[in-house]
Amino acid sequence: MRLALLFCLLLPTSLMAQPNPPDTLPASVEPRAVLVIHGGAGTIRRDLLDEASEASIRAALTTALEAGYAEIQGGASAMDAVTAAITVLEDSPRFNAGRGAVFTADGYAELDASIMDGATGEAGAISGVRHVKNPILLAREVMTSSPHVLLSGDGAEEFALLRGLDLVPNRHFHTDARREALRRVLDQQRAQQQSESGAADHEAIPERAVPEWQLEHPAPWRMTGTVGAVALDNDGHLAAGTSTGGMTAKRYGRIGDSPIIGAGTFANEAVGVSSTGHGEYFIRNVTAYDIAARMRYLGESLAQAAEAVIHETLTESGGTGGVIALGADGTVTMPFNTPGMYRGYIDEDGTVTVLLYRDE
Q1: Closest listed residue to residue 170, CA positions, set 129, 131, 135, 136
Q2: What is the chain's Cα-based Rg?
Q3: How far apart are CA 99 and CA 225, in angstroms?
Q4: Over the stretch 104-133, which tens digit does the pLDDT of each residue have?
Q5: What is the pLDDT of residues 42-82, one digit of tens each?
């Protein structure tokens, strides 16, 4: 008996313990994610994307991940990685940000963006700009070179000019696909107004379309394409950013969640979050911050917090969309309650994962 007990005591602990099954290996065994991105959530289904479009979207997401990864590999900050990744997506016509932004009701592209440094708690945002080539760069300038957090409209563009950012004609952002989307929405609004007013088919449809705010639940395809990124640098610091053209046919200077710190973007020492979806609900629920708050005050894991915020709080309030979130330990979660979300991440070894549909 004594010999058996002595033998057990002398055995290395690793030999006495039961081995972990493959699906419960400690997180430290797997490479950490260092950058996660999204390109919008909405009605994203295989039957709605042709092969060429799908390939183009996957390629753009991959290029964005590689651009941000190169910054991190070069020793740059999480802020640098976020801006590098989002700039790529803003320059692609495939997303509702920058080059491919949707049209307002009066036929312009009007852009919003925000960025936050989890290491310092500093943030910058802009809204309603029409000529800034890369809105995420202006949001960062607001954070680093002004005493403010949020600038809008003409004032934000004046600041962009002072900071030497690239300004372009509004037509730079226009694409045929977004113009067609605007036509569809305006036709839908006029038809709705005609139906509600009881106008006969032969009567003229009034020029004034149904106001955006009267459409309680806009079609999901009208909100697809907002882009965002969250990065984790070599110093363990997090940063997050979001950029968008907003909602097709928006009116009255409407602002969604993307430039609102705590709703569309949030980062601290533990987690970075970027949101995409029906912005009014993300604002009401302070979605991005709520994930961080649940982790801090309820002790929930990143996955638990993000799942609860999207599938309980957001869904039960009637909102649609999703988030990407990256923890300080390299953990990634990307929950959404729509048919799909353009999303992807890259780990510290440079392995890229890009996903579009719910069943991937």
Answers
A1: 131
A2: 23
A3: 11
A4: 999 999 999 999 999 999 999 999 999 999
A5: 878 888 888 999 999 999 999 999 999 999 999 999 999 99
Helix (H) or strand (E) holding 327, with range, is: strand 321-327
Task: Establish whether 276 is a catalytic residue.
Answer: no
Q: Which helix (H) or strand (E) holds 152?
A: strand 150-152
Scored b (16 or more CB within 10 A) or e, 126-165 reads: bbbbbbbbbbbbbbbbbbeeeeebbbbeeebbebbeeeeb
Amino acid at 83: T
Catalytic residue among 226, 248, 265, 287: 226
**CA pair distance 89, 39, nearest whole angstrom:** 8
Q: Is 355 helix (H, G, I), strand (E, B) or coil?
A: strand
Tell me which DSSP letter residue 40 carries. E
- The C-alpha atoms of residue 227 and residue 113 are separated, in whole angstroms, by 9
- Enumerate long-range contacts of 2-9, CB under 8 Å, 24 or more apart: none
Between CA 190 and CA 183 the distance in angstroms is 11
